[in-house]
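Reply to thread "Modeling small-molecule complexes from scratch"

Following up on the discussion above, here's a worked example others can learn from. I took a protein sequence and the SMILES for adenosine-5'-triphosphate and predicted the complex. Inputs first:
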Amino acid sequence: MLDLKDITYQPQTGNKKILDDISFNIHENEIILICGKSGSGKTTLLEIISGLITPQKGKITWKNKNITARQRRWISGVVFQFPERYFLGTTIGKELKIGYKSLREKNIEQVLKKVGLSDINLTQPPEKLSGGQQRRLAVAVQLMRNPTILLLDEPTAGLDWSMKNDVKNLVLNLKNKNTIIIVTHEPSLFEGIPSKILVLEQGKIKELMKKNYGG
Ligand SMILES: Nc1ncnc2c1ncn2[C@@H]1O[C@H](COP(=O)(O)OP(=O)(O)OP(=O)(O)O)[C@@H](O)[C@H]1O
């Protein structure tokens, strides 16, 4: 579906390549983990895939045709690190409808069911939810747009063990129905879920594990 070939990125402000000749592909309904030490280029790769930045070198194709950064922004739903810091809505209901005032209540119901938040009260502020529920809400906000690729940057950062499990169960719930890329420091938490694990080291792919983890 999405193919990255020889992607190299060096910011104008920096003197070294953050990503160096990265190639891999993403199939429909695949779940991919991107791991690697801090500073290895994980978030930068996510920004390239989602069209927030453009690589100096390399080719990105979608179903064998070139895809521009603008088109990638259109197909991507990105949940950044600590997404709860960026909630804007005064209520959960308003948060879900930001930018989509015309959406019907039915869309909200469907999306909340997908993320396992069916029984929450939409009139309460997002801050009333637990940490794990807030992460689920952030994913729900993106799913409202029905993105082709969902990108999660460190979705378990700063959560306690049970909330981390909550996020893992959310990903399990979305498996086989959504194409998901997860940047994580905790690959073991998602064991058995991804079909590919990409390990970055200093901007290069150190390891690309393709495995059928039983799913
Ligand atoms: N615009 C920029 N200008 C200069 N250097 C940058 C820029 N953006 C990122 N970097 C550097 O590139 C490297 C990779 O950053 P990136 O955020 O992609 O890594 P990461 O693997 O996601 O790290 P972390 O796990 O800490 O989030 C880091 O050393 C970072 O400081």
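What I'd highlight from this example: The first helix runs from residue 42 to 49. The mean pLDDT is 92. Questions welcome below.
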